[in-house]
Design a protein that fits this description.
The chain has seven helices and six strands. By secondary structure, the protein is an alpha/beta fold. The protein has one domain: 3-Layer(aba) Sandwich (Molybdenum Cofactor Biosythetic Enzyme, Chain A).
Length: 165
């Protein structure tokens, strides 16, 4: 069972001024995969709050996967990638590159995404755009590799079976 946290980063949603649609959209997709959403939250675009939430979920909740949504664009308060970079141990650029490459087939605006993916301890963290449509499209790009990525991070011996000779 893959244990997942979903973190929505949005000033307006955290204040109750706008309904969070991306977090619930990701939750539905995660559950359709048979994975467990262990925790979810909405936080403002605040570097320290984002970092402390990510650290808590990885270090204390021991989640396998954290999906963030929002704060990945060019706006002044879009700082989710910076917060993520400050707390990860290793970057996982192929994941974000794949999401952007596929998204560019749909919209030129995909090149404005600054989303990243990385690893803290044995947890994979992936940034998604704040748009429910974009978050859903990006999840579809990476969902097939997540189980193997988690196997590798957990040193699961079964991970070797996925490698071709």
């Amino acid at each position: 069972m893959i244990r997942v946290g979903i973190l929505t980063v949005s000033d307006r949603s955290s204040r109750g001024e706008r309904e969070d649609l991306s977090g619930p959209a990701l939750k539905t997709l995660v559950q359709e995969q048979g994975w467990e959403v262990s925790v979810s939250s909405i936080v403002p675009d605040n570097l320290e709050v984002i970092k402390s939430t990510l650290i808590s979920w990885v270090d204390f909740e021991k989640l396998d996967l954290v999906l963030t949504t929002g704060g990945t664009g060019f706006a002044q308060r879009d700082i989710t990638p910076e917060a993520t970079l400050e707390i990860i141990d290793r970057n996982a650029p192929g994941i974000a590159e794949a999401m952007r490459a596929q998204s560019l087939k749909i919209t030129d605006h995909a090149m404005l995404s600054r989303a990243i993916a990385g690893i803290r301890k044995t947890t994979l963290i992936v940034n998604f755009p704040g748009s429910p449509k974009a978050a859903t499209e990006n999840f579809a790009v990476i969902q097939s590799v997540i189980p193997h990525a988690i196997q590798l991070l957990k040193d699961d011996p079964a991970a070797e079976g996925s490698h071709q000779i």
